[in-house]
Amino acid sequence: MSFLKGSASFVRFSVDGTLPESSLDFIAKRVMAFSFKDIDETYDEYSIGWVSILNMFDTQFAFASYIAGDYITLTLRIDERKVSPAILNKFVQKEEERVRLERQVPRLSRSVKVQIKERIRTELMRKSIPIPATFELCWNLSNATLLFFSTNKKIHSVFEDFFKESFGLIIRQQIPYVTAEYLVGEDHLSRLESLTPDIFV
Amino acid sequence: MDLVDLMVEKRFVGQEFLTWLWWKSEERGGSVALANEGDITVSFEKHMLLESGEGESSEKIICTGLQTELQEARTGLQMGKKLEQARIVIGHNSHEYSFTLAGALMEYRNVRLPKTEATENDKSDNSEEVEGMILERIFLFEELIRLVNTLFAMFLKVRLGAQWRDELEKIRHWVAKMAIVV
Lengths: 201, 182
Description:
The complex is a heterodimer. The two termini of chain A are 37 Å apart. In chain A, strand 3 (67-68) and strand 4 (71-80) form a beta hairpin. By secondary structure, chain A is an alpha+beta fold. In chain A, strands 1, 2, 3, 4, 5, 6 and 7 form a 7-stranded antiparallel β-sheet that branches. Chain A has helices spanning 23-33, 85-103, 110-127, 153-167, 176-183, 186-193, and strands spanning 8-16, 46-51, 67-68, 71-80, 131-140, 145-148, 170-173. Chain A is 39% helix and 22% strand. Chain B has 5 helices and 6 strands, in the order ααβββαβββαα.
């Protein structure tokens, strides 16, 4: 399901705030500064950044490849190391039993158990492979709107924060009421504000 | 009101629009006239989600099936539910857009754009053709949004104007007419 091919799901945002004078230069700097950093060879648990919409491994954006006409097209990539609670539980219990037998005690103290859990969690986290997730965006510079290709609210929240961090701009989701404020004339705005649901039967 | 409050308090706006659009699409057998543009075709397909109430007391029904068998959906309307999600096909200038619109937050889901010569260039090695494909896809997405917003503007004009009483009567009549004959 994507912006480039096949079926796609998206929501629309307006972009509030003004870009500096040489906006394309500014965008170029910020895209590079906030481009994705690979964590496959490190122990980091989380990485977020911009990549090219044509290639999720491209963080160079040669020839400003994110520009298409009046639009900026980017992919937001998020890699995350996760350990499933079931796996964590299994290895914690295994290790607790091993330590208990080694120390020849009937049970372990709470503080020892906490230490074991932390140690096992860190070990498993380091061994786990980051799971990637990508979400495209298409930013219309001429009318300050953008399309974001996800309908997941948690992802929207992450995206709003990251977009603000990257470009210093705030985005506002175009839910029907917000779009309506823009579509209706001045004379109908107050009626829109006081609108309540009607019964269709 | 901040956005989070608006999402709750004004949730009904998008749902009323969808319900109105369903009625509108059947008014003239699928043709809807847009100002300054002529007719487009709008048809509601075999997947709908209806909703009533709010929060803990909300009720939803999901209906999938052939057009003529959407009786549960029609019954849902008769029980005062409104359309929250619907699969819609819009025909405009010999292009067909099919998509699921989620009314509460105006989400476009599983959008299938019309296939044009330019959109089929995704595997091209030529960077100009690829950029052309991208621009074409953007154009088509924006065109779809424009058409939906034009329909939404039509709805708002009636809903906020003096003609709403009459229009609502017609819609109520249409809902009542869809009674199940067993």
